[in-house]
# Entry
Amino acid sequence: MADRSAPSCHLRLEWVYGYRGHQCRNNLYYTAAKEIVYFVAGVGVVYSPREHRQKFYLGHQDDIISLALHPERVLVATGQVGKEPYICVWDSYTVQTVSVLKDVHTHGIACLAFDLDGQRLVSVGLDSKNTVCVWDWRKGKLLSMAPGHTDRIFDISWDLYQPNKLVSCGVKHIKFWSLCGNSLTPKRGVFGKTGDLQTILCLACARDEVTYSGALNGDIYVWKGINLVRTIQGAHAAGIFSMNACEEGFATGGRDGCVRLWDLNFKPITVIDLRETDQGYKGLSVRSVCWRGDHILVGTQDSEIFEIVVHERNKPFLIMQGHCEGELWALAVHPTKPLAMTGSDDRSVRIWSLIDHALIARCNMEEPIRCAAVSTDGIHLALGMKDGSFTVLRVRDMTEVVHIKDRKEAIHELKYSPDGNFLAVGSNDSSVDIYGVVQRYKKVGECIGSLSFITHMDWSSDSKYLQTNDGNGKRLFYRMPSGKEVTNKEELKGIQWASWTCVSGLEVNGIWPKYSDINDINSVDANFIGQVMVTADDYGIVKLFRYPCLRKGAKFKKYLGHSAHVTNVRWSHDHQWVVSIGGADHSVFQWKFVPDRKLKDTLHIAPQESLVDSNSDESDSDQSDVPELDSEIEQETQITYRRQVYKEDLPQLKEQCKEKRKSAASKRRERAPGNSIRLHFVHGYRGYDCRSNLFYTQTGELVYHVAAVGVVHNRQQNTQRFYLGHDDDILCLAIHPLKDYVATGQVGRDSSIHIWDTETIKPLSVLKGYHQYGVCAVDFSADGKRLASVGIDDNHTIVLWDWKKGEKLSAVRGSKDKIFVVKINPYMPDKLITVGIKHMKFWRRAGGGLIGRKGCIGALGRTDTMMCAVYGWTEEMAFSGTSTGDVCIWRDVFLIKTVKAHDGPVFSMHALEKGFVTGGKDGVVALWDDTFERCLKTYAIKRAALAPGSKGLLLEDNPSIRAISLGHGHILVGTKNGEILEVDKSGPITLLVQGHMEGEVWGLATHPHLPICATVSDDKTLRIWDLSPSHCMLAVRKLKKGGRCCCFSPDGKALAVGLNDGSFLIVNADTLEDLVSFQHRKDVISEIRFSPGAGKYLAVASCDNFVDIYNVMSSKRVGICKGASSYITHMDWDIRGKLLQVNTGAKEQLFFEAPRGKKQTIPSLEVEKIGWASWTSVLGSCCEGIWPIIGEVTDVTASCLTSDSKVLATGDDFGFVKLFRYPAKGKFGKFKRYVAHSTHVTNVRWTYDDSLLVTVGGADTSLMLWTYEMEGHRDSRQCDSEESDLDSEEDGGYDSDVTRENEINYTIKALSTNIRPMFGIKPHLQQKEPTLDERPPVSRALPQPEKLQTNNVGKKKRPIEDLILELVFGYRGKDCRNNVHYLNDGADVIYHTASIGILYNVATGSQSFYQEHNDDILCLTVNQHPKFTNIVATGQETQQICQLQLLLFMCGMQ
# Structure
């Protein structure tokens, strides 16, 4: 079988040719170490001119387009484009990430700037609003954001002389921003008559509120405050792209190719015209300048970097060159020398030296170049052009040998034959022409088998055959030089190919991902000697595969750097390097090839860390022989936690049912019952798909979870307390290092994590907003301040929280596959590990992001699925348990050894002071020393070891262990079967808690005169539970099939059980031994009921729509009830045992006579008069009110009536247990509602004396006991009921004023489109006319004629005087309250009206005003604290309805 594993050799980026000059500016700087930092494609480059050496920052995954240098000149911030672009702050010395800022911008990050002390960073997005954001970049925290401008912003800068002030400029505007609190407020620059309104491209701030800016016409505009005070005309002949401030003054660079230096007062010092220098050329355009001391760096539009020494300014030194704008497709390598040739749409062909890392020759052609080839002797260079012609040059001096045009469409590929006699030229006309080299390139043959454009070609070693690929993915063969197609397979068998650059063919099957377009991969080149090949694709990725690569979906190593598509890739002649070229980023990357044997020497060098692994995600592991997953893990990974409807959707669903509500509100509805229930005890523990979720608290109680309940269990008294803050399945639990707080994460559309106190059972913090669908793992840091969590969304997002503040610190996408555990490093709270399916990753926090590195396995083994992990005795030691039973020991990110610990997966692991304890699927608990050298002791969980005080029975020996915790001299063990055990160090085992195993629980029956109940589940067990205070499982029996219903006989001696295969049993209620069994049906038995009294008959309902009636004494079937159109759901006998009431899945309520089963029709009034032995039906007029408003979405699955017929308990698909008054007539009755089960409550039953309500939850496997409390008995416990779905008007309506105010809609004035400008300029100062539908209906003024808005400098106008607000009549009392206050000991009164805050002086009667709001003020409060005298907060309405803009102002000051 072919090897599908990834190759063991790898590539290392050695050099990048080029510089991003196009569409970017101000992106070139000197660092503190006198190195030069810039970017190209998706790579940040730090270039040392002294050593001629480059370092690379590879943390981005798309084009970088902006760069800012920290004031200390070591750290660099770069921003990229993309759907979810982010900013990286990185160290130019180590090229490692310091911080990642993300989750705010879209489209891209256009500009960046650090403030004076380097603490804050401002960024501008490429979204439609050009959003401006200010970050505390070290924390990765957004401090403020605001819409920037409607048009593009080109530059932004902090005012280095005034704190909290910024200036931004762009298309036809300049804005001066002030940052106050977390609000950014702009003021538009006033151009006035001093200069024309035009696009500003760059700016620099000086002292005394002076700002210099470079304009599109080449003038420099000088601003004082927000006003334009003067212009320096003709500073450049065309647009000024870059302005750089330094100690000596300012440097500007423009489209005219000049660099000008100015002193600190902007008086000219000198001009350097680069076009006139030796290296200059016509059309040179400067995009970036940086002036440091006597050196100036200049970056140009055409990807060059010049360095100018000031006193030799006419001799600039060219330190970097690259191709200009235009796609780059042509690449060829010299057959005998370390040279690479590239040709681009910029019409230049260039020759690069791979040893000197320099451009050594360049020649401009007439046409864009699309492909290149060098002849075998290295003398000729052939270039294929976009117009269908090709040119041959002499490599030595770049002179033309011949120029031939035989085709109309682009030449996409050309190749010389190995013997040097022929040149094959493939064009987009679907044909290949063969030319004789010796005959001065005379055409000697033509290949015309293809129906699509030619993409790739290879010659055979003997030059007799040619293979081609075309755009349809067809591979064809031709005999040379005639060009005749070869179809005979025998003839093709023995061909040896001289090169392999084709993308289709058996040898390269494996390079194609499973689902991909045939044109995704642009280029391939095989290295026959090293048995590897390299590919280039449309996603900017260079990949390394084994060669030949026969099987689809082969593993590979992947390398990022190019941003968009990589168009071509080639090995150098001696296979030392790989050269790749990018299409749109027109850069040339040179990669060093590191073969296997060298790898061992380089292992001690830490791999280049990046936000994306170079060992790709798709190709997770380097091996093809990944072991089969353990059955238990396989099962677990297939569990879906998605819900059709989440509890968060309820308010919305109710809104949609508004019509129904209105009709219901008009009718008199039944009150909710006075009595209530309180959760008393829960049988069950969630072990089947969770791990490490069981701990001792400070006081020695146990804390764990089941369904939606956090349980604190007192093992001495066998009592429980409950945290009921969750409303859906809890999937994970972690305990605070002090063992007093617990964090639990649940399932939900926007799922939440609750941190709560185990003593008071009160929530301390609820974290939400970042995890979709659910949270599957949580962990506290050692200092207890931070919490890490993992979601179950598709990317398994990892989030690090400061949980007390409820603040997200960092987040990152974790893995495509499930992550089981996250652990924070106890010594370094910025580091964590995650383990999961074929996943072991080490993360460190960087600002708002986390940077991950895969565990390096080296030669020790293969990436296994990891099930658990802990940190060891030093910060770099970590241990993980695998799915094959090994414990892996890691130092830093390297695997140093593995130890066999268990048979089957190691599910749980716990670190002690001096050693470790592990638990596995083999049901063994093992104690280890602190190096995993020796296993000190093992405990097998066996029935024989159970101590007498156990609260139940072990279902099987050696159950799979899912959680282990130590404390109080014991080992606490949680099993997959839902048992919690306490293992004494000396050996005996006590069972403390148990519940059903995985599978839905439906069957529930309470005993007719004892406090016990029976349950039967899909886990194929029948169990009897003691409901008295001993709360234990009395008996259990394994069944051949799962069951869905059970029922005690009226004397309590027999128990009937219906199974899922259509059979049913009657067993002895004490011993659970069979008395009798039957099978007449093939479908699930859904309900089973003994007739009342002597229990003579047994009614058995099944999902194939029938009810069978059996005579218990004679064990014969005596009747069949037919006529139901769907499966039977509920069934009740009347008191006489003569009549059966049946509910079906089609919501029919039917009646049958017993024992024959004849169908009866009974009017609903009569039904109410009949005495029923039990009521578990959900249909009929007596329980019409139990169906919720959103009854279409959810089903009421079960009900049960108390023996005094007053209260009906129901369970529904939402996991709610509700109590209604009975009869619940009329729609939408009121109720009390209790949440503890997660999804559907499948059954509810009152005990014989109504003292307890017993409920079972379907998939949550739990059995819950609720105590029934009479009216007037109120315990001060949390979770009494929540109120009903809707409250009718009759419960005391509103006062008419309150009603009116309640109905005021503050959005009427807010217009359909964004005309009410919340930021900046008043409508009459806006440049554009508001369109009709935008115009505010409140304005009665005539629209201003356009002429008024132009700058008619010629006409003399009377200057407009300013208006000053003097007096305001009015006070807003109609819909506001508590909005008048005394200030200054009664000397002043503060209140508000319209959009103005008014300070009224009582003595003088004068008013002063706060006028910063731009819409109605709705509320006002005064700070009472003596430290903050005269501070007032006011909130206004704006068109984002709920967003209040709070402005604090000092009264009497402003």
Observations:
- The helical segments are 489-493, 596-602, 631-637, 650-656, 658-666, 1164-1169, 1296-1303.
- The radius of gyration is 39 Å.
